[in-house]
Amino acid sequence: MDRDGVINKAIVRNGKAFSPRTRNEFVIKYNSVQAIKTIKTAGFKVIVVTNQPDIARGKLSFSDLEWMTKRIMTETAVDEVVVCPHDDHDNCDCRKPKPGMLLKSSNKWKIDLSRSYLIGDGWRDMAAGKVTGCTCILVDDVYNKGVECNFLVSNLQDAAELILNREGRR
Questions:
Q1: What is the pTM of this model?
Q2: Which domains does the chain have, with CATH numbers?
Q3: Residue 87 annotated as catalytic
């Protein structure tokens, strides 16, 4: 799953979503902890794959990123947080919509991506999920209207319920 806009609140400026840049801006959504626990209890690995181009842009410090990652790791049941610190011009293989982070995680954790779900809030997430064969679940928000996905949900808890229902793990 993606981080910003899924687990924690995205910062919306002029109708566009941005990652939190400070510790004060980083707010875990009210339903994220329970939703992730629900997914984990059903037997799924929960891997966070997040673009953080503000590192490359000099707008987010590594110490603040590490603090945010540590909060997610300690307050939720995620198995791993994988970060791409690059910007588009770096032309890396990990920045979504490229599938690098998903492929790396699937190899590490022995995950069959064709039987996996990508939960995100933007076109980059959905494109990375699609190219790797994941079922793509979009968390609806004001900034992502018209993004193609397999399923549209209101929040991470709704995504968890959808996954459990589809997999017969209720």
A1: 0.96
A2: 11-167 (3.40.50.1000)
A3: no
